[in-house]
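Narrative of activities, Objective 1.

The group set out to show that a structural description can be obtained from nothing but a protein's sequence at a throughput compatible with the screening campaign. Below is one input-output pair from the validation batch, recorded exactly as produced.
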Amino acid sequence: MDSRTALCSNVERIKSLTIPLSDIGRYSSLVDRFEALTNVTFQLDRQLSEEDADMDEITAEELTVLNQQRDERKQHLDQMVLFVQELRQRHKNVLQTAACYGLYPLSNEKCPEEHQNQLARLFPVLVNPQYLYDSNWAHFATKIEETDLSTVKMIVLPMGQSDAFTLPRLLEQFPFLHRCRSLERIHLTSLRDDVFQWAVDERRQYDADIAAGCSPQQVLS
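Output recorded for this entry:
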């Protein structure tokens, strides 16, 4: 049984799916049957030629190929957003998360911020999330201020995010770690030294309140 036959015979039971972006067309035709799908991830599976090209020395022929690849990528990304939109509409919001990442995390392959934002806008604010990770990171990153983070236990930063959705950039715009009162574990790359200064300040204030015989202004988690 080939992959096409296997997919078609089991569509109604699939709950999680990873789709190569270049193959989005054949999945789009099955939207009506993805009635149990709750999580979908798209992979940028075809690397653009510009990854290996010196743009100052690129030939006219190479530039033509690159522009064709860019146009095709844009078309597939637009189809991706439409696919998710139709899933949400036709199956009464069964789909809970949709994410798009580069298949080559060490290269510059990233889902454009424009399309990540379009995906995120198709979903409501996360409700009592316990984990922030690859499947819901972009969704969270576009609704930080509206999201109740008191139940978050673990944060795992996904690779291949657009610059606007990286943790350092988000923390500059919307400091939110101090709102994660149930946080038990966080996986970080290098960040500025004062990223947890809020926790130090809270502890100092708590100790000062106790020493002064006052009720602490902040209850430590």
